[in-house]
C-alpha cells in the first residue's frame, strides 16, 4: 500500500520537506514525484495531482488526492493510528496540533526573509526585528512543549512527532541564516541537523544539483553547521559490488570511500551517497564500516 507524494526542489521546498518527513519518520511507504520550482516542469507535476495547487500533495493508494501538509498529517494519522504521528497523551496531542497550526499560518517574517536553503549557510544574515520577534515566539512554544512533554528524547514531545516534522524547516532556517537562539533551542536545531532522515533529504537535494539563484543572499558564507560527511569522491569502476545497494540493479556509476570503490545503478544514487555516506544505512551495511 504505497502512497504517491508530489514534491518540489529538495534544497528549497520547505513544505515538501514537512510532507516527506511524515512518511519517512513514521515508516510509511511512499513514491516521490518531483517537479522543478518556477518552471513548466512544476506545472506538469501539479497536473498529475489535480486538484492540488501546491506541494506537497499526496495521492492515497485508492487514488484520493490530499493537498496541504496539515491535511496530509491528519489523514495519515487516521489511516495509520499505530504509527505515532501525534503524541499519545491527549494534552500533548492538542499542544502539538496547535503548534503545527501556528507554524502553518504564522511566522511570516521568518518565512519571507529566510527562505529554506539547504545548500548554503551564512556568517551573519542581519535579521530584522520582525524576524527576531518570530524567533522569540518559536523559542517560547518549543520550550513549553519540551518542559511539559519533552522528557525521554531530544524532540518537542520526547519522541519524534508531526510537530517536529513541521518545525524541521525552521531548524534549517536557523542553521542557514545563523539566527540567534538560546542554547536550548540550538540543541533542538542540532537534533534536526543530525537526524539521519533529514540528512538523507539534504543529500538528495545536493544530488539534484538544482540551484535557484533567487534564494541566494548577499552575505558571507560559512560551512554547513551539521555533522561533516565522510570524505567520499567520484571514481571509475570496477567496484567491489555488482548490484546497487538501493535498487539491486547492475552498477554503472562509482564513488570511492576509504580507498574502496563502490557502484550504483545511476548518478543520482551515487551522488546522494557521495553527499552524505553515513545517512544511508543500506550503503553503510554494504561497506561494513
UniProtKB/TrEMBL annotation:
<feature type="domain" description="GST N-terminal">
    <location>
        <begin position="12"/>
        <end position="78"/>
    </location>
</feature>
<dbReference type="InterPro" id="IPR004045">
    <property type="entry name" value="Glutathione_S-Trfase_N"/>
</dbReference>
<dbReference type="GO" id="GO:0016740">
    <property type="term" value="F:transferase activity"/>
</dbReference>
<dbReference type="InterPro" id="IPR036282">
    <property type="entry name" value="Glutathione-S-Trfase_C_sf"/>
</dbReference>
<protein>
    <submittedName>
        <fullName>Glutathione S-transferase</fullName>
    </submittedName>
</protein>
<keyword id="KW-0808">Transferase</keyword>
<dbReference type="InterPro" id="IPR036249">
    <property type="entry name" value="Thioredoxin-like_sf"/>
</dbReference>
<dbReference type="Pfam" id="PF13409">
    <property type="entry name" value="GST_N_2"/>
</dbReference>
Amino acid at each position: 500500500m504505497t502512497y504517491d507524494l508530489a514534491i518540489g526542489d529538495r534544497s528549497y521546498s520547505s513544505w515538501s520537506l514537512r510532507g516527506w518527513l511524515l512518511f519517512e519518520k513514521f515508516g510509511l511507504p511512499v513514491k516521490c514525484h518531483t517537479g522543478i520550482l518556477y518552471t513548466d516542469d512544476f506545472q506538469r507535476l501539479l497536473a498529475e495531482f489535480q486538484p492540488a495547487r501546491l506541494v506537497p500533495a499526496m495521492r492515497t493508494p485508492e487514488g484520493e488526492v490530499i493537498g496541504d501538509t496539515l491535511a496530509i498529517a491528519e489523514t495519515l494519522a487516521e489511516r495509520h493510528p499505530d504509527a505515532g504521528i501525534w503524541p499519545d497523551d491527549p494534552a500533548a496531542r492538542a499542544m502539538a496540533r496547535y503548534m503545527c497550526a501556528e507554524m502553518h499560518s504564522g511566522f511570516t517574517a521568518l518565512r519571507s526573509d529566510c527562505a529554506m536553503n539547504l545548500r548554503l549557510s551564512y556568517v551573519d544574515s542581519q535579521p530584522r526585528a520582525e524576524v527576531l520577534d518570530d524567533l522569540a515566539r518559536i523559542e517560547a512554544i518549543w520550550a513549553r512543549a519540551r518542559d511539559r512533554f519533552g522528557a525521554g528524547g531530544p524532540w518537542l514531545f520526547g519522541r519524534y512527532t508531526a510537530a517536529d516534522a513541521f518545525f524541521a524547516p525552521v531548524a534549517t532556517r536557523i542553521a542557514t541564516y545563523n539566527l540567534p537562539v538560546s542554547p536550548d533551542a540550538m540543541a533542538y536545531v542540532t537534533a534536526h541537523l543530525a537526524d539521519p532522515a533529514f540528512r538523507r533529504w539534504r543529500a538528495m537535494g545536493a544530488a539534484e544539483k538544482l540551484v535557484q539563484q533567487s534564494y541566494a543572499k548577499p552575505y558571507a558564507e560559512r560551512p554547513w553547521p551539521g555533522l561533516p560527511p565522510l570524505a567520499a569522491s567520484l571514481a571509475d569502476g570496477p567496484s567491489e559490488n555488482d548490484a546497487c545497494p538501493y535498487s539491486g540493479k547492475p552498477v554503472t556509476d562509482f564513488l570511492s570511500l576509504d580507498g574502496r570503490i563502490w557502484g550504483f545503478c545511476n548518478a543520482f544514487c551515487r551522488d546522494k551517497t557521495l553527499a552524505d555516506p553515513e545517512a544511508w544505512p543500506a550503503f553503510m551495511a554494504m561497506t561494513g564500516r
